[in-house]
Specification:
508 residues; alpha+beta; six-stranded mixed β-sheet; three-stranded antiparallel β-sheet; 41% helix; globular
Length: 508
Amino acid sequence: MTSPFDPQLGPGGAAVPPPQCPAHALGNGGIGAGGLRRLYGAEAENDPMGLYEKLRAEHGPVAPVLLHGDVPAWLVLGHSENLYMTRTPSLFSRDSRRWRALQDGTAPPDHPLAPVFTWQPICSFADGADHERLRSAVTDAIARIDSRSTRRFINRFSNRLVNDFCQDGRADLVSRFAEHLPMMVMCQLIGMPEAYSEDLVQAARDMIKGTETAIASNAFVMSAITRLVAARRTAPQDDFASRLIEHPAGLSDDEVGQHLRLVLIAAYETTANLIANVLRMVLTDPRFRAQLSGGHMTVPEAVEQTLWDEPPFTTIFGRWAVGDTELGGQRIKAGDALIVGIAPGNIDPVVRPDPHASMQGNRAHLAFSGGAHECPGQDIGRAMADVGVDALLMRLPDVQLAVEEHELRWTSSLMSRHLRELPVYFAPRPPQDIMVAPSPAAMPVPRADWEVTTPAPGGPGPHAAPAPQPAPAVQAPPPPTAAPIPAQRRGSAPKRLWGALTSWWRGY
């Protein structure tokens, strides 16, 4: 079997021009060198799922593709092939220094994806004992985060954001809510709430897009983190940064800073996309919303369904082949780059013949990757989505999409696909105190006059039943004087118990 990345041969043995050759520019649309499809450009950005299916039809579960600058890589499309790759670090390493394109200069230091693949002293780029040492510091620090207090301030931040636009009657839930809640929460968790700003939000978004400004955005984020590490090294506090510094693994300042960057950006990007995607499904799918509002689906179940259908990361770059091997019928050579295909793996027809089927109760999706490098903070991301979406829908139960569904637009990059805007309208309402539970009085009174049938025009038909006549008026006796309600009267025990459980779940 011939590798499509052999220096002089493309698929089927066709000659491939050198990178500087003008023939590289002759590709049509999303087709590049050697007839390989590009994972960047118009086709990849406008219809990534369609591109994945073309690749699956042409190559099977593992497809040769081109990254920015026509740098070759493998996109893994199959569900089981992705799991095998992520669970076999002896064959597929996370150490990007193995990448042949880095060694021969095909992927230069100023490549748009450099912030993603440039080796750093963090667990995501380590294997074996180094990975265990660094990962233990991260997982132990996460384990010390109090889940109930975290849910409490997620709820408060959610209501604070809703307060900013609830009187307007209109809002964009992406820019006013989904993009800000995760950054507010993560800045609080890692120990730099004062660093939260619109600039930090936009820099985080820009870093993984592969844009020309991604490197500058990375520098902006790292400057805030470097100041935090220096401050906590001198004066530790009860936060994630201090726990990394104090961990027995003995992380250096550089290692601490790079892990804080990893946690901040990964948690922010995934959760911002997840919140936006859950809200979009609620607003555009009547069955989804009916199940949610009717009690047939909980918000956590809605989040899991979204993780199948619209995972926050579409792909993760990358893995690097330790030696020559095979995967999905393709010959993989030592030093080749591979991409974890989360979105295409989630709709692999081998494991999901009907892509529209409900996946409630099934957590076998690839949204958080797998193996030794599976996302350690996924429960925090789930909590932000669960509590955030629940808080917003409780405050704005009448929220409706302000445009037609087909008018929604996305921005796609190699690793993610996020909604640009989610414009909505609702009945204006006053802000609420974010330190207390939302008041049920703020919700609209349910309509009692829903009309099930529409009468025929022109009044009742010839066989219609006669209209009921009003009963004779009867003089009602004067009502007795109502006794004052004792101050200590409370709701029934079941109501009190349910209220307590609801408050505990939402973090009040």
